[in-house]
Design goal:
This protein is of the alpha/beta class. The chain folds into 2 domains: about 475 residues, 3-Layer(aba) Sandwich (Rossmann fold), CATH 3.40.50.12780; about 120 residues, ANL, C-terminal domain (GMP Synthetase, Chain A, domain 3, 2-Layer Sandwich), CATH 3.30.300.30. Helices cover about 35% and strands about 25% of the residues. Strands 5-4-17-16-18-19-20 form a 7-stranded mixed β-sheet, sandwiched between helices. It has a 7-stranded mixed β-sheet with strand order 12-11-8-6-7-14-15, sandwiched between helices. Strands 21-22-23-24 form a 4-stranded antiparallel β-sheet. The longest helix has 17 residues. The chain is globular and about 75 Å long. The chain starts with a helix and ends in a 5-residue tail after the last helix. About 55% of the residues are buried. The structure holds 5'-O-[(S)-butoxy(hydroxy)phosphoryl]adenosine. It comes from freshwater metagenome. InterPro entries: Ac_CoA_lig (IPR011904), ACAS_N (IPR032387), AMP-bd_C (IPR025110), AMP-bd_C_sf (IPR045851), AMP-binding_CS (IPR020845), AMP-dep_synth/lig_dom (IPR000873), ANL_N_sf (IPR042099). Its EC number is 6.2.1.1. One of its GO terms (cellular component) is cytosol.
Length: about 650
């Protein structure tokens, strides 16, 4: 995969400097922020923290760095929900719109900062009445409705850490995450809308909490109006709680290092990692990046990030960054093709969106649906486009630029991770000359270096992406697993953070991300580990052995391909197993194709040769197979791969 990407990139030398018109209103047009960040990154971030965040108490120490643990703004106190809500209302901006929410069936809700503050305060009081205290964990399993943001901010207001689980995850995944976090309360909904239908959440949640002893109370938001069972004493309707609650709930100052949230993400083993993020540093970096990467003018811009709050992009760039900056955002509940393939473009036209942030997978899907879809709408309100989640190939970049940006919107390709908390590598749109497909440079205040296998500096060409100094929004660890924290991120290269991504530096020092170098797949911008899917497959009684690889896919970046050895005497279909994986993990982890095989290619020491399986899945000629225990296995697999139609 890396080889092909490099070939493509070699051909890419188009350049797009910021236009004079864009520069005229842009926040940053020169190198001043970079210079300041290079001079002294800690003073740089300290200035951002004091300008962008309101503190109840000043910090004593900007950064305490005990590799691999960083603490930022020690001694400082602040409240994240105060920063996202109260201070804007107190400054007279209570009537300003925080969210234009668009439901999939077509209804809309307009929520001002004052209304959001009232609702968050009421819900914070409700959580208190359910026994939630500072330091507790609260799980959130909701569709894309404003109550998701309310629930997160209410937790932040009282110092409880939230752990949001994407609504597409199965009850098993939910239960694993609740148990790992030992959450006290679960906030869910009856159901949500997707592709014109209601998908049930409460029944899934009920199944999950049958095996989660820590959950004491469940709060249910009414959205789908689908029938649900409510257990007396344990389950409460959200609206009943809100109706009974006072809107007076002063924001309590929290220590800068107070746990703000856990967010689970896949690693190279089967068990998801609970990534820990704290308060002061996280808010500083998400506010900074949201302001400068998106060149935000909070009085004029209408900003729309199409992510789901279940992923880190939703945390940092739907909830915390935009609200800290007092921005007006669009929040959309559903899929891009309901009722038709032009839904996103009709939303942009309806709300006059000026900043639009989405994922390459979505862009490639729009390309497939055709130029006529965006052409049906007036997209002239757009002035800036963003991309996140996976490498954006130059063709998709150009299509985005021409058909959505109509040739005059810069595109910010933003590289970051659940672990980094905020954007790390990205253009500053008024200052950086863009190259289609390159995330360009590390942001001011960020220390990034490309190194080779032996950790030597790479000036030009391929290598591994590493981070050389602490950054404010960096993860503070893996929940209950300090050893894994050290192993996963800090052991591959001494003294530095290894992100797991391969990349390449071109002649001008531009960075080109080339995808993961570990056993983590990136499917539609979502991280899924091969081991997780293998475990799910093997948990089916008919499966003896399974190997999973990510194969290149023109739309989703990578697609999950599974090779399965069945136990004798069992008869299952490909779709039985795909559904089984959906039940174990969630529909996002369903393999695109499953190949049944009597054997898997293994080395003589018994290790599955994933590289070969990837070659087979991608239809490539095979290189050296001499280390194989049984070379016939592969030719048999190739024959089967050519025969098996893959499901979409
Ligand atoms: C992995 C992190 C960042 C929020 C969404 C994904 C890949 C992310 C880019 C980009 C190339 C990217 C990396 C990274 N990735 N953004 N602009 N260009 N690759 O968060 O689930 O934590 O995944 O996504 O491989 O390691 P995540």
């Amino acid at each position: 995969m890396a080889e092909k990407a490099i070939d493509d990139l070699m051909l890419e030398n188009r350049k797009f400097p910021p236009s004079a018109a864009f520069k005229k209103t842009s926040l940053v047009t020169g190198t001043e922020l970079y210079d300041e960040g290079n001079e002294d990154y800690q003073s740089f971030w300290a200035r951002q923290a004091s300008e962008l965040v309101t503190w109840d108490k000043d910090w004593d120490t900007v950064c305490e760095w005990n590799l691999p643990y960083a603490k930022w703004f020690l001694g400082g106190q602040l409240n994240v929900s105060y920063n996202c809500l109260d201070r804007h209302v107190l400054a007279g901006r209570g009537d300003k719109v925080a969210f234009y929410w668009e439901g999939e069936p077509g209804e809309s809700r307009v929520i001002t900062y004052q209304q959001l503050l009232d609702e968050v305060s009421k819900f914070a009081n409700s959580l208190k009445s359910l026994g939630v205290e500072k330091g507790d964990r609260v799980n959130i399993y909701l569709p894309m409705i404003p109550e998701a943001a309310v629930a997160m901010l209410a937790c932040a207001r009282i110092g409880a850490a939230h752990s949001v689980v994407f609504g597409g995850f199965s009850s098993q995944s939910l239960s694993d995450r609740i148990n790992d976090a030992e959450a006290k309360v679960l906030i869910t909904a009856d159901g949500g809308y997707r592709r014109g239908e209601v998908f049930p959440l409460k029944p899934q949640a009920d199944e999950a909490i049958a095996t989660t002893p820590s959950i004491e109370k469940v709060v249910v938001v009414r959205r789908g109006n689908n029938p649900v069972d409510m257990k007396a004493g344990r389950d409460h309707w959200y609206h009943d709680l809100i109706d009974a609650a006072s809107s007076d709930c002063p924001a309590e100052p929290m220590d800068s290092e107070q746990l703000l949230f856990l967010l689970y993400t896949s690693g190279t083993t089967g068990k998801p990692k609970g990534i820990m993020h704290t308060t002061g540093g996280y808010l500083t970096q998400v506010a900074f990046t949201h302001k400068y990467v998106f060149d935000l003018n909070p009085d004029k811009d209408i900003y729309w990030c199409t992510a789901d709050v279940g992923w880190v992009t939703g945390h940092s760039y739907i909830v915390y960054g935009p609200l800290a900056n007092g921005a007006t955002s669009v929040m959309y509940e559903g899929v891009p093709n309901y009722p038709a393939n032009d839904r996103f473009w009709s939303i942009i036209e309806k709300y006059k969106v000026s900043i639009f942030y989405t994922a390459p997978t979505a862009i490639r899907t729009f390309m497939k649906w055709g130029d006529q879809e965006p052409a049906k709408h007036d997209l002239s309100s757009l002035r800036l486009l963003g991309s996140v989640g996976e490498p954006i190939n130059p063709e998709a970049w150009m299509w985005y630029h021409e058909h959505i940006g109509r040739g005059n919107c810069p595109i910010v390709d933003t590289w970051w991770q659940t672990e980094t908390g905020g954007i790390m590598i990205s253009p500053l749109p008024g200052a950086t000359t863009l190259k289609p497909g390159s995330a360009t440079f590390a942001l001011p205040g960020i220390g990034m270096e490309v190194v080779d296998d032996e950790c030597h500096h790479v000036e030009k060409g391929g290598g591994y992406l590493t981070l050389t100094q602490p950054w404010p929004a960096m993860l503070r660890g893996i929940w209950k697993d300090p050893e894994r924290y050290q192993d996963a991120y800090w052991s591959r290269f001494e003294g530095r953070y290894f992100a797991g991504d391969g990349c390449k530096l071109d002649d001008d020092g531009y960075i080109w991300l080339l995808g993961r170098v570990d056993d983590v797949m990136n499917v539609s911008g979502h991280r899924i580990s091969t081991t997780e899917v293998e475990s799910a497959l093997v948990s089916h009684p008919a499966v003896a052995e399974a190997a999973v690889v990510g194969a290149n896919d023109a739309t989703t970046g990578q697609a999950i391909m599974a090779y399965v050895i069945l136990r004798t005497g069992f008869d299952v279909t490909e779709s039985d197993l795909r559904n089984h994986v959906a039940k174990e993990i969630g529909a996002i982890a369903k393999p695109k194709a499953i190949f049944f095989t009597p054997d898997l290619p293994k080395t003589r020491s018994g290790k599955i040769m994933r590289r070969l399986l990837r070659d087979v899945a991608e239809g490539r000629n095979l290189g050296d197979t001499t280390t194989l225990a049984d070379a016939n296995v592969v030719s048999e697999l190739q024959r089967r791969a050519a025969e098996t139609p893959s499901e979409d």
